[in-house]
Structure formats: structure tokens, C-alpha cells
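Collaborator request, handled under Task 6.
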Amino acid sequence: MGFRLLIAEDDRLLAEAVSDYFTAKGWKVKIVYNGEDAVEKAVGRSWDMILLDVMLPGRDGFSVCRKLREQTGTPVFFITARVMEEDELNGYAAGADNYITKPFSLPVLYAKVMAMTERVRGTADADLIVRGNVTVNICTRRVSVRGTDCSLAPKEYEMLLLFLKDPNRTFTREQLLVRVWGYDFEGNERVVDNHIKKLRKALEGSACRIHTVRNTGYRMEVSV
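C-alpha cells returned to the collaborator:
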């Protein structure tokens, strides 16, 4: 299989249990126990998934995730006992892809990780997302549309990544604001519409089309 997992969790028994489960499934696993080590081990290395505890010693998970998102698009799942809505929104704003609440089932965690990993990998290698004739290299942030390099502004790139990772999912404007602009953004929701317009233009003629879901938000469909 060749998948690689980084676990950042200070509960050693939990980290080892998760590690043993994924190792038995053929994954290569590395465990770190604090935020600084999480950043050091994650940046500049190729991982298929990062499982990140919120309450890490030294540097909390939110800070770690924000730092990772400056340099990598690797999927990040928060694993935490904190279930407050504000914490969850802060996690998504920091760039997390999902929230797993303790206690959890290892088979369910594995299923969620595999579903995300397979979507991100698409039909190419671990550093590429391929949807139809649109390709994104999540390490270099290079975007190709119909074989031609496409220059996107940072917010448009982050929005495209969300859609490509989860095609056919409808995102509300509020969700896009939180995931792309951050939980504390105080601007108008219309900023989403403006960036969608630019992103649609960049994807024009490709297999990836962004549809408006009336009174809700937007959804990307990929034609075969």
C-alpha cells in the first residue's frame, strides 16, 4: 500500500493503539508527542495523513495546523476530547479536514482516513490531486487545467483544493468563509461569490464545474 501516517498525540497509549492498528493495515507510522516535534516531522516530508491532537504540549494543535498549512496540503484530522462548536470551527479555520472526537472506534477512524486518502490521491501519486483534466500538486501548489498551468490567487487555490478533495459535496458560503478566510473573518459573504466567479473562469472548459446550489452555496461536479 505504501501509505504514511504521522500521529501527533501526547496520550501514549492512544497513540500506540492507533499506530498498531494502522501498521497492521500496512501503513508506515511515526508518532510524536508534542507540537514542536509535529511541525518538525511534518514539514518537508511526504505524509498521506496527519492525526493531530488539539491539546499538545508546547504548541497546541491549532497552531501546528496553521503552520502546516503554510507549506503542505496533507490531510489533517484533529483527534480531541474537546467538542465545543467554537473549537471545531477554529479547527476547520486552521485548515483541518475533519474532527474525530474521543473516544472513537479504530475501524471507523481507519475508514474515514482511507476515504480521505483515496480522494486526495485520486488516480495519481500521493502529492497530486487529479479530477478529470484538473491537476493540483499539493506540495508545489501548482495547478494545471487541461494540461496548461493555471495561476490562482491564494484564496482561490484554497477554495479549489476544498472542492477537489470533496467533489459533489455542497459547501455553504459560511463553511467556505470559515475554511478559507478563517473563523474571525468579519467581511461580507459576497467575497465568496466573487472568488467563485474567478475560479469558474480559471476552470472554464475543464471537467470540473462549480454549480450554484440555490439558497445554500456551491458544489463541484466532475464530468467523466
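The cover message to the collaborator said: "The chain has eight helices and twelve strands. The CA atoms of residues 79 and 100 lie 5 Å apart. Please let us know whether this matches your experimental observations."
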